[in-house]
Structure formats: C-alpha cells, structure tokens
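Usage example:
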Amino acid sequence: MNAVESREFREVCERAGLAVTHQRQVLFEVLKNMHGHPSPEEVYARVKRRIPSISLATVYKNIHLFLESGIFREVSLHHGSLRVETNSKPHHHLVCTSCKAIFDIDADDLGLSEKTGTLPGGFLAQRYAVDVLGLCAACQQKAS
Amino acid sequence: MNAVESREFREVCERAGLAVTHQRQVLFEVLKNMHGHPSPEEVYARVKRRIPSISLATVYKNIHLFLESGIFREVSLHHGSLRVETNSKPHHHLVCTSCKAIFDIDADDLGLSEKTGTLPGGFLAQRYAVDVLGLCAACQQKAS
DNA sequence: TGACAAACAATAATAATTATCGTTTAATAG
DNA sequence: CTATTAAACGATAATTATTATTGTTTGTCA
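Running the assembly step on the lines above writes:
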C-alpha cells in the first residue's frame, strides 16, 4: 500500500474508534480493490493470500465493524432468515436502520415512477423492490 | 376454512401443478391470515397448532414451492450469505430473477425521484435501496 | 380400486455465522 | 521507552438456518 492509502485508513479507523491493526488494514485494502458483491468467504480467500494465518472469524468481525461504521455497505439488508410477504398488494418497504423493523408502504403512496421495459445493458425490468432506509418514528424519539 | 377459500386453493394448486394435500392447504390458509413478514419458523409454529405432527421440512419445502409458483413472494431476495458493496458510488441493483446475477446501475442512470425527509407514518427516509427485478440479457436469449 | 409419483415426517447433514477463550498486539499514560 | 490495559487476534466449538436423505403415506389418474 502507498502512503496516501495508509493515511486514509488511519483516518477511517480514528473516526470509527477502531485500532489500526495489520489484519484490519489488509482487509480494508482488499475490499477497496475488489469489485462486485463479494461474500465473506471470497474476501477471506483474498486476504489469506497476504496474511495466511488470518482467521475467518477476524474477517467476519471486521466486515461487521466496517458495516456498522458505514465504511462499507452490505448489498441488501439481510434479515438472517427467509421472510414471506403476506401483503399481496404492490408495496415497498420502510426499513428502520436502528431497530431493523420493516413497514409496508403502498407502491402508490411512495409514488415512484418505475420504468419497466428494457434498460441500458439490455436488462428487462419487470418489477421494482424498493427499500427506503431511515428511522422509524419511535427510533427518532429515542435519538432526540 | 370455507368453501370459497377451499376452491381458491384448489385452483392455485392446479395452476402450479401441485397436489392438494391437507398440510399444504393449512399452510396456505395460515400464510393468508398472517400479516407482516413471518419467518419459516413462525409459520411453522402457527401451522403446528392445527397439524401438530407437521414437519418443519414440509413447511420449508412448501414455502419454496409457493415462492417458485409466485403464490407468495419473499421479502427480499436473499443471497444466501452476506455480501459487501465494493462500489462506493450511489447505485441500485438489477437483479436477474432467472440466474440471480446482480448488476449495479448508477442511481442517476435509473433516474428515480427519491423523496427523502418524513414520509406518512413519521418515517424519516434517508436513502433508497432499489432492486429492479427482471431478466438479464443472457437469460432473455435463453428464454426465447 | 390399483399403480405410481408426489408428498410427508423424522432426522442427518451442510452452510453460514457467531461465541468462547487463551494468546498477542496496539493505545496511551507515565 | 516501557508497563498497563483494553482491544484484537486465531483456533475452534457452538449455533442457526436450511437442505438432503430415507422410509412411509397419500393424492392422482387410469
């Protein structure tokens, strides 16, 4: 890594209140240089090339710390287990980033103009699934 | 259950090519009458009240059959494991319902007018995470 | 009604993730 | 620059969610 990247990482850790460790730094760099939507196992495999002794648990722990600190995001909020929709009306979701609650909102009420049909890249868009991330009323109370 | 519900269920099974079994029918009714976003375990607990001998595996299998047949939907396509975003630009996802591939699309290119601020219900909207569901170019080829 | 495929219950197996615990390392106060 | 202490680490056991297997039962349809 170069000096600029190194300083960036130190600042990131400072802000997040995390110690600057070798493992954490390599993980950070590896993530910065990967593309797409890697799984923890894929990230682990990459980091292992530079630190053969690293533990998978360390990778998980630090990915979670990065996510919590907003240094990286996860592809889709995953609810840990499969969830079934019981609301048959077209609707989207309000997801509270604090308490993880999910509220339904009618597609009409959200009023997004969803373009179906072919998008750039030749992707045929059929349906939109929208998560609006934010804070529910209760968590706003608590925060204030 | 009443005769109307029973007929509806038979039609649903017919269309999906599924046998009409007692377990399947009770599961269907239970799901119809639940609200929110129940997990398989929660559904299992409910069904068990009416069929104490039912197996959790049966619940899983039938939920999947219902999802595949489009009788119910899942809350969010879950990728089986945690995935980390490596693209730091604001973007959304094109999700191919056939091959499960995920492509990034710049938020600007998708051109949704995202309303942040307070939504009905007092929810404070901060960010939108949009999955556009459809078929990628390759899967359209295969299908034709 | 009988044959056969589909579905079922029980439960073993697997995959993903998290917890535990003894050891090592970074932060920082002196 | 060293001692103290909390944080982080590696190894691995444990847990959770899900899927596969297998022998038995039950719909479906001739």
